[in-house]
């Protein structure tokens, strides 16, 4: 049945073009739950509209896309663009979009990364730690004393008694950024000494944790990219909250009322 449907509708692209010209595209986006993503991308497009690329950057980006789609000859490339309904200018805009977004991030926040890194350092520092957790309070207390008295290794006890996924690694976790952990666990690890064993309760679990190693964050290329992405994500969320209510409905930021429902697709 699926094959028959595809044969009777050989070009989905042409179908979308026809629906777009017949003003049917918006209901399709709603039906496929693509409106939130579309609104986000439109906000980004507005931000990068005045960012240009050099001719060399445009050529490189276009060639990378052509290679991705295995379009070798100029004729193949022209045919493919026509089938997609893209002019040369539109294709170049698509090909360079990621580069222009990266440029926007660098221009907007690149000069602020040093100070932002200092603000975030407590959260982006990494740790390696051992964890054992159980819902049995008495067992947790017994295991804590075994570890503290060096009667058995943390890894052995975690492998046999821990009720979380960390049992598969003998309780060893990391390296992970402190900011990705629950605040209670992150704070304990942040203030612990290497080798220190601490019991505590959280979320119904009785936990035993031991800090194995601290890995202070460095403002290297990977960290710069992470911080840029954080700034960009925060900026995008701020922009979305400034959209008109009729747009924010699709993002789930406001609840539709009777009046707005009537105007959504008009």
Structure at a glance:
Among the domains are: 33-50 and 96-124 and 218-266, no CATH class; 126-215, Chitinase A, domain 3. 60% of the residues lie in helices and 12% in strands. The protein contains 15 helices and four strands.
Count up the helices.
Answer: 15
Radius of gyration: 27 Å
Strand/helix succession: HHHHHHHHHEHHEHEEHHH
* Relative strand content: 5-15%
Shape: elongated
Strand segment count = 4
Q: Low-confidence parts lasting 5 or more residues at pLDDT below 50?
A: 1-9, 260-266
- Give the end-to-end Cα distance, rounded to a whole number of Å: 36 Å
Question: Which structural class should the secondary elements be placed in?
Answer: alpha+beta
Mean pLDDT: 89
Helix content: 55-70%
Sheet with the most strands: spatial strand order: 2-1-4-3
What's the main sheet like?
Answer: 4 strands, antiparallel
Explain this structure to me?
The protein is of the alpha+beta class and 266 residues long. Among the domains are: 33-50 and 96-124 and 218-266, no CATH class; 126-215, Chitinase A, domain 3 (Roll). The protein is built from 15 helices and 4 strands. It has a 4-stranded antiparallel β-sheet, with helices on both faces. 12% of the residues are buried. Residues 1-9 and 260-266 have low confidence and may be disordered.
């Amino acid at each position: 049945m699926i094959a028959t449907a595809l044969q009777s509708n050989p070009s989905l692209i042409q179908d979308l073009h026809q629906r777009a010209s017949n003003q049917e595209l918006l209901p399709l986006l709603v039906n496929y739950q693509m409106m939130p993503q579309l609104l986000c991308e439109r906000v980004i497009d507005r931000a990068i509209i005045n960012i240009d690329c050099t001719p060399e950057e445009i050529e490189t980006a276009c060639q990378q896309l052509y290679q991705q789609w295995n379009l070798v000859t100029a004729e193949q490339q022209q045919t493919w663009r026509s089938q997609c309904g893209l002019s040369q200018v539109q294709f170049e805009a698509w090909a360079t979009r990621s580069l222009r977004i990266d440029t926007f991030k660098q221009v907007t926040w690149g000069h602020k990364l040093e100070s932002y890194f200092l603000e975030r350092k407590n959260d982006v520092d990494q740790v390696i730690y051992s964890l054992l957790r159980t819902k049995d309070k008495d067992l947790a207390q017994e295991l804590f004393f075994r570890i503290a008295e060096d009667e058995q290794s943390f890894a052995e006890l975690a492998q046999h008694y821990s009720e979380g996924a960390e049992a598969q690694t003998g309780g060893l976790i990391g390296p992970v950024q402190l900011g990705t952990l629950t605040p209670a666990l992150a704070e304990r690890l942040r203030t612990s000494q290497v080798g220190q064993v601490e019991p505590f309760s959280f979320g119904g679990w009785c936990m035993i944790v031991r800090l194995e190693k601290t890995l202070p964050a460095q403002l290297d290329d990977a960290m710069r990219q992470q911080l840029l992405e954080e700034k960009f994500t925060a900026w995008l969320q701020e922009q979305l909250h400034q959209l008109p209510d009729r747009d924010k409905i699709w993002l789930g930021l406001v609840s539709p009322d009777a009046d707005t429902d009537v105007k959504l697709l008009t």
